[in-house]
Design a protein that fits this description.
The chain is an alpha+beta fold. It has a single domain, classed as Thrombin, subunit H, CATH 2.40.10. The protein is built from one helix and six strands; from the N terminus they run ββββββα. It is globular, with a radius of gyration of 15 Å. The protein starts with 18 loop residues before the first strand and ends with a helix.
Length: 123
């Protein structure tokens, strides 16, 4: 029996919506607004309005609750799949070139929300 995909992940993953603006890294403008489906220190799943080729680098500004300003990250597209014909795509990203403070902020957000969920489910 093969392990579940989630069991192979290196980082805790949080299924939660956060507001994100993104663009292709090489383009100066053309930001789109979307939300996460999940996030971890190593990557995230976004809902996008277009299909991206694997390897495409995106500039990502994500709003997290522990920060006043959005966190700016670079993400490499791992996979992009059509969910609703010509309308909605699930785009899996690997974040890279992340400084230690940003990693700590993402991890703090994930751990805080997972603990909160456990407490709420225990009530």
């Amino acid at each position: 029996m093969s392990p579940k995909k989630s069991e192979r992940r290196k980082h805790l993953r949080l299924d939660k919506t956060f507001i994100v603006s993104y663009r292709i890294y090489a383009e100066a403008d053309n930001y789109d607004l979307t939300q996460t489906k999940n996030i971890s220190v190593g990557g995230m799943l976004l809902t996008t309005n277009r299909l991206f080729r694997p390897g495409t680098v995106l500039s990502i500004d994500i709003r997290l609750p522990f920060l006043m300003e959005p966190l700016n990250l670079k993400g490499r597209v791992i996979e992009s799949k059509e969910v609703a014909r010509h309308l909605i795509y699930d785009t899996h990203l690997e974040v890279f070139d992340v400084d230690i403070d940003s990693k700590e902020t993402i991890n703090k957000t994930v751990v805080y929300n997972l603990k909160k969920r456990i407490i709420e489910e225990g009530k």
